[in-house]
């Protein structure tokens, strides 16, 4: 038997991931707000030539960074928040100057329903969320559907939440093998499996690539969230979710987040200084700059 | 123990909003709602299911910021399941709330280019047509209590009725608790009504701090004082550091 009769090795570099994306694409970003965001990939897009993107995200600094770099033509979100800093300054700036041409604000549960519809290859799924609210007023293209059944309340008219189909999904998990099987080790899977199934291609960054047996050696099989059939590429990016959480590998870097938020809310010069120090280079130089920042502040 | 503070009154009033909910998931957003829900669990409603605000249900009732024995798993995806299931009472904040009980946490000004972008609608549209929803307003003013909200995130009963049975069936705007008063949607044509004023607050003060015509009954009771037991629980157990005073300062 040939020893190469194994699933493909999907390991790639950050640059190769960004190189496989195209301007104008619809890109879903996993995680939740300031939690387990694929920030190394987001930073690389921030520094790329990509433009006119549709970004689909329960947003945090991923949305803030890409909005600041004018990468977003259309934003689909339910909230954008850093939690301990409730309002994301780069997102606020973008909205208040109307610099993102198209805005789709959904209820956060509708967002899940839309991903689920896409994952199930359905045109829509019915839901109550949105009825009566300005979500339907500000997105007049959202339609309702009347139930063919009457449960005794009359046929209910529900929101037909359209499928949120993605050209690509970017997600960050704790561990994966080289084939794209991946596990989360923190408290919450978020919706990374739904993002993956809603997308034509899924690019996965992880803290650590291990061999397949290593995935379940010290953690239950239920933590295996992604199957390799959902994944196109795997990138090992230690600390790659920084400054968001990646429990239990690390928690949110609150001090760095405050520095980010202050720069984002500050003058153009202050943002430029933050950009020059942390964001202008590649991932290795970002991590080195973060390390220096941490050491400075530890003294 | 009789020298209770306004924050203590608010905590007890919030607890009362959850006292008759039975065995459901109580979802408080923010500090005073969390304190009030935990107070309810230690007094009027021990069956309440509470979470750490992150991903687990807690079997006990820890102080603010504390942890307790885990009795269940509630990652975000399962929160959405419970919203649709209906056994949930959420108390959200409100940057604006209007006479018809609509709430705004999305943005101030026109949606296309807001004067001030806030969080986004979060789960408010879904919450308000699926499960019991209350609001907490730490600073009662005409900026918050407005004639009409700029953007409808949370849906009040009139809008829900206009949207049809699917929206109105489970719409249940239960109570609005502020630093001055307790209100509900029991006014004429499902508008906001004054239920009680907190000790030391006059009806005129509440009316002046409200930007729309509030329904005021002929007799407005005073919000009850926290009991000796409640004050002990708040001060000694749930919030010994006095975090509540950051939201509702001493008079």
User: In total, how many beta strands of chain A?
Assistant: 12
Shape of chain B: globular
The CATH topology label of chain B is Glutaconate Coenzyme A-transferase
Q: How many separate domains make up the residues of chain A?
A: 2
What's the shape of chain A? globular
Enumerate the strands of the largest sheet of chain B in spatial order, edge to edge or round the barrel. 1-5-10-12-13-14
Using CB atoms under 8 Å apart, which protein chain pair has the greatest interface? A-B, 45 and 46 residues
Instruction: Specify the number of helices of chain B.
Output: 9
CATH topology of the largest domain in chain A: Glutaconate Coenzyme A-transferase
Question: Sheet with the most strands of chain A?
Answer: 9 strands, mixed
**CATH architecture label name of chain B:** 3-Layer(aba) Sandwich
β-strand amount of chain B: 15-25%
Supply the helix-strand structural class of chain B.
Answer: alpha/beta
């Amino acid at each position: 038997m040939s020893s190469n009769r194994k699933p493909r090795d999907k390991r790639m570099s950050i640059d190769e991931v960004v190189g496989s994306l195209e301007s104008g694409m619809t890109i879903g970003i996993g995680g939740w707000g300031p939690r387990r965001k694929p920030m190394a990939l987001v930073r690389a897009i921030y520094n790329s030539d990509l433009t006119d993107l549709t970004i689909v995200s329960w947003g945090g600094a991923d949305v803030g960074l890409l909005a600041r770099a004018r990468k977003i033509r259309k934003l689909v979100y339910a909230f954008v928040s850093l939690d301990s800093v409730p309002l994301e300054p780069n997102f606020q700036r973008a909205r208040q100057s109307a610099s993102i041409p198209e805005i789709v604000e959904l209820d956060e549960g509708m967002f899940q329903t839309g991903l689920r519809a896409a994952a199930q290859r359905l045109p829509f799924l019915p839901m109550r969320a949105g009825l009566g609210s300005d979500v339907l007023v500000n997105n007049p293209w959202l339609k309702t559907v009347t139930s063919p059944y009457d449960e005794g309340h009359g046929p209910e008219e529900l929101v037909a939440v359209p499928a949120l189909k993605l050209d690509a999904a970017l997600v960050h998990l704790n561990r994966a093998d080289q084939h794209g099987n991946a596990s989360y080790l923190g408290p919450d899977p978020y919706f990374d499996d739904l993002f993956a199934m809603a997308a034509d291609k899924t690019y996965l960054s992880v803290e650590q690539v291990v061999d397949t047996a290593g995935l379940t050696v010290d953690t239950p099989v239920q933590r295996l969230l992604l199957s390799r059939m959902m994944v196109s590429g795997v990138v090992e990016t230690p600390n790659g979710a920084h400054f968001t959480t990646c429990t239990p590998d690390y928690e949110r870097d609150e001090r760095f987040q405050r520095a980010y938020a202050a720069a984002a809310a500050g003058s153009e010069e202050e943002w430029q200084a933050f950009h020059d120090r942390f964001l202008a280079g590649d991932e290795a130089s970002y991590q080195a700059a973060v390390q220096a920042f941490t050491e400075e502040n530890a003294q | 123990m009789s020298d209770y503070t306004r924050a203590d009154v608010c905590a007890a009033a919030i607890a009362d909003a959850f006292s008759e909910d039975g065995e459901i998931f109580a979802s408080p957003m923010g500090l005073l709602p969390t304190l009030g829900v935990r107070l309810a669990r230690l007094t009027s409603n021990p069956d309440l299911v509470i979470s750490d605000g992150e991903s687990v249900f807690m079997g006990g009732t820890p102080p603010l910021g504390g942890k307790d024995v885990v009795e269940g798993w509630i990652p975000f995806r399962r929160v959405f399941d419970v919203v649709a299931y209906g056994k949930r009472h959420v108390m959200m904040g409100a940057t604006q709330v209007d006479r018809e009980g609509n709430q705004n946490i999305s943005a101030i000004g026109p949606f296309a280019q807001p004067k001030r972008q806030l969080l986004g609608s979060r789960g408010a549209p879904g919450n308000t047509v699926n499960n019991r929803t209350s609001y907490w307003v730490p600073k009662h003013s005409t900026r918050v209590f407005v004639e009409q909200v700029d953007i409808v995130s949370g849906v009040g009963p009139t809008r829900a009725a206009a949207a049809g049975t699917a929206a109105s069936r489970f719409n249940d705007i239960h109570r609005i608790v502020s630093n001055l008063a307790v209100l509900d949607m029991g006014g004429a044509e499902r508008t906001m009504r004054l239920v009680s004023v907190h000790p030391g607050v006059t009806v005129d003060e509440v009316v002046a701090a409200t930007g729309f015509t509030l329904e005021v009954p002929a007799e407005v009771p005073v919000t009850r004082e926290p009991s000796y037991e409640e004050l002990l629980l708040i001060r000694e157990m749930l919030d010994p550091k006095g975090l509540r005073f950051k939201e509702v300062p001493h008079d």
